[in-house]
Amino acid sequence: MRLKLLLKERNMSVYQCARISGIPYTTLLELVSGKTQIRKCTAETVYKLAGALNMGMEELLKDSIIEEEVLSDRSDFEIFKSNVCHMVKDKGDMDFIIETLEGDIITVYWEKKWYPECFYLLAMLDYLSRENHLPLCENYNNIRNYKLPEPLYPRDITLTSRLDASLDIREQIWNEAIPEFLRFNIVESEVRNVC
To answer: Pick from 127, 133, 143: which is nearest to 180 by CA?
Structure first.
């Protein structure tokens, strides 16, 4: 999907990209359709494709690998949250919003019944929209009517409270949480402070 969007942004067909890059048309078609994963391509293919798309190999690989992970294997939720926060930091608010809406990954998560990921990504989208004075995307209004059955706290908070009841700060964290995340019963207070 990401590769398809990159071609669309550049007004380039698969055939044109194949001609410019020197990559066989069938190979490129399998990449665009998602039949072949870009991480399994040779360095030469990635180099040629990045050149044709006028972008760095690292940028092409990073975005594509994140998308492949999103659409294939489910990763640990804490890793997922960290990846989303890093994407916001790396891309900037507006590009993150645009790519999230164009890729419609929220719907993919919803259909897979990966509700924590779906709600987290939608909460991030809504939060960034508020921060940038943008209207909410109405495509997800039906999803906004749902939430997780139990509050989902960051893992370190949950573990700390289990180890020592005197260190239980869940109430404090709840009160400091970002409203867009709380709407879905996700306790998240810091999405900008990532290393």
So the answer is: 127
